[in-house]
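Troubleshooting log. The previous run stalled partway through. Resubmitting the same three chains, unchanged.
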Amino acid sequence: MTDTSLTLAEQESRRRRRQTRRALLAPALIIILTISIMPLGITALYSFLTPGTYGGVLWEFTPNAYVQFLFERDIFDGTLQFNDSYLTIYMRSIGLAFGATIGALLIGFPTAYFIATKPREQRNFWLFLITLPFWTNLLIRTYAMLLILRDEGLINLSLMGVGVIERPLSILYTDTAVFIGLIYTYLPFMVLPLYASLEKLDFRLVEAGYDLYANRFQVLRHIIAPIAKPGIIAGCILVFIPGLGAYITPALLGGGKKLMIGNMIAIQFGSSRNWPFGSAAALILMALVVIALLIYARSVSKGARARG
Amino acid sequence: MTSDTAKAPEDGTTRRSMISARELTKMFGQGESAVTALDNVDIKIRENEFFTLLGPSGCGKTTLLRLIAGFELPTSGTIELDGQDITALPPHVRPVNTVFQNYALFPHMTVSENIGFGLKMLGKPSGEADNRVKQMLSLVQLEAMANRRTDQLSGGQQQRVALARALAPAPKVLLLDEPLAALDLKLRKNMQIELKSLQAETGITFIFVTHDQEEALTMSDRIAVMRDGQILQIGTPKEIYDKPTHRFVADFIGDINILEAEVEGAEGDQTRVRLKDGTTMLARSTGADTQGHCAVALRPESIRVAQGGEAPALTGQLENLVYMGSAHNLHLRLGSGEELVVRHGGSTDGIDLSPGAQVGVVIAPGGVRVLA
Amino acid sequence: MADTPPLAAGATARSTRRRMRARDLKAMPGFKVAGWACIFALYLPLVVLVVFSFNDNRSVVKWTEFSLRWYEAAIENDGIRNAAWMSVKVALVATVFSTIAATMAALATTRTAAFRGQGLAYGIINQPLMIPEIVTAISTLSLFSLVKQITGVTGVGYLMAAHTAFCIPFAYMPIRARLEDMTLTLEQAGADLYATPWQTFRYITLPLLMPGILAGAMLAFVVSLDDVIITLMVAGPGETTLPIYILGALRRGITPEINAVSTILVGVSVLLVLVLFLVQGKMKK
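Second attempt completed without errors. Output:
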């Protein structure tokens, strides 16, 4: 798009700037494209190939991987029978991720509000406190949670010590443990965007609400929550999508019995030696992620349109 | 719509041109939303001159400065520096230095390092550079601050560091972008005097940008009044003040009264005009051939109250009387409905200055000018 | 309570009480408790872990006395030492390359007019944050196995490359943030004073950007040290990093050495983040 009103010098300078920019961007883009993005194409390709004997793939095309997701081939008569085991895993993952999102929201919202209402100088400190655990190793954090949830762990010991229960509750290796673990892991991801929204809240609006005889609950529901909505939506996405693909939390706290999508995929590339199936499962996961992102994008633009 | 008066300066010698811009245009953006910051500007600035670009914000003065410095490239037109075409040269090649509006001192360097930066970039040997830095420090009286970090300095001190830094490499032209804007009044007045004497001492061409007309009048050898990307008038402070060629220029510089009038005809080298209420008077013309409807400008200080039976040139009703200490400012409402401000310097004994009184005024000869 | 104005006829005591309570406007019932509880819950597991790593006996819950024996055992453990060294090696290489790439990318995408493909470039740079890690892990594994088949080249370079890729967005963020705080005026002043574009970068941009670069490097280092999933998939035999070692050890059963090693790892992360936080605090000035 040449604009003839530009001098030659201006065009020359623009071209030089563009070249510099491309050169500067090249390393980062090349590295990420080759290592993180292009491989997705390979994964898509692999999902249509045949598993090799010792892992890896054989270059024979087949839709078997996708078939395997829903159906099992009877070894005797070769007919396909509906197999819901993998579907169950996906359903469980969606359910757990969704549940963890709601849980994180219920816990994170008061926390974010709490920080947003602190005096300005203190807020950075509190934010630091909330995000610090995020920077420690996820494996270790989950391990620490395991120590607390196990039969000889803190929760059971204190409940027994106080006399509420007689025998330890088997929290570990249940869906509940994974649920708690997921919330624990992703809580900072919920608090930060919520805080970002709530920080912009003009408390005079809250005052106005009270002035007009609203009680606390009504103020919360009608004034604060709508303003915090972008933060709520962003936080939910930041918890749901990683939660969907979680690996460590279900591995440690689910004990190999309560599998989520992440574990299942990892197993295909490990002991099950079924790379095509693992690739297919990964692609199906990506499809779910894309759907979630589309819903997010739509709600963001709807919100923007509503605000005009 | 510009004129460069390449007249000989008052001392009679002709100085050569240091900066020469021809048909300089700068547009930002493209297509429908394009903004014209400079519109076909021609200007010649002489060597050893203190030249001021004066105008309201958005008039293009800063854009012109940036084009000379090299931070922007013109959309069309050329710029010459001392005979050399610099239009497309990058800023680090041009022998031009800038004093930025907010000083732009390097926060991670000391005062001395700031001042010596240009010399270092030019590859001057360190002994020579150190001497020059010391010289600059004493020029702006900041010897004691040599090793301080720049954020420990006051606003006035920072400004002087910026000045020293820009002067150290001995540029051919020094550009100053509203450098006194952030200073308080007293400091400002002092700096005006300092800048003026610095320019005379160093002989470097100063191009000074400001929106403060008083500042421009005080410091400049010549002023260019700008508006909406165009130069309306170039001249010495006296020329701009006494003989504005443009209504905007007259209005912008000092206080002025502007009345509607009709041109009746030429009378010798003056023009006879008729005001709205029918009074006629002689006015100095701008040289341009004005006919029909025009505007007529009178400085308040060239009008005074008629005394002792003098026949008034104009009469108006006194609406407001302001005592200024050295003079009285009278705000009169003429029969035509227009307002007239009169600055009466002498005594007011014997004059009826009660509110609503009819006051007659006389105008000093040559105090009326016809404007385009 | 302070003097209350006389009640208008008809106003009930209840509505007055409500209005008085509303003076503490910002407080919501239970939110303060929830806030404190949240922080408490976030830190409790870690605190328990750290505390019991200093416990003298093997039990992870009963406290006998303070002891450093598990730390000694951990340090003497060859497996742990090798894994730690591998982690540091990989993290250092990944940090260096990702920080350089991120710095260049930040310079290209910040403080410039909008350019075509900017959104796309931004999306690619931040990609690792948008795709679930397990997917990236197996994709990268597939890519590397293919390359290994074709070229026959093996080695820890693959792991380092994988780490570099996902470290880039983490290094990029603080650098970009710092760059955005720097106006272009200083660089213009440099050019005005005869600095070539390279000299401007070297004497003006780079020194001022350095705190951001350091912050980015530290972040990248922490993230690389802590990575589990991608390393799990991509690492070959003999390329065990510390988190992988811990994972394996956990599978074999919980031992106190694990607590010690974990505490060390957590300590390193916390220390680096603390330094980063302080540096950023100073940067704001």
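Takeaways: Strands of chain A lie at 50-51, 57-58, 71-73, 80-82. The longest strand of chain A covers residues 71-73.
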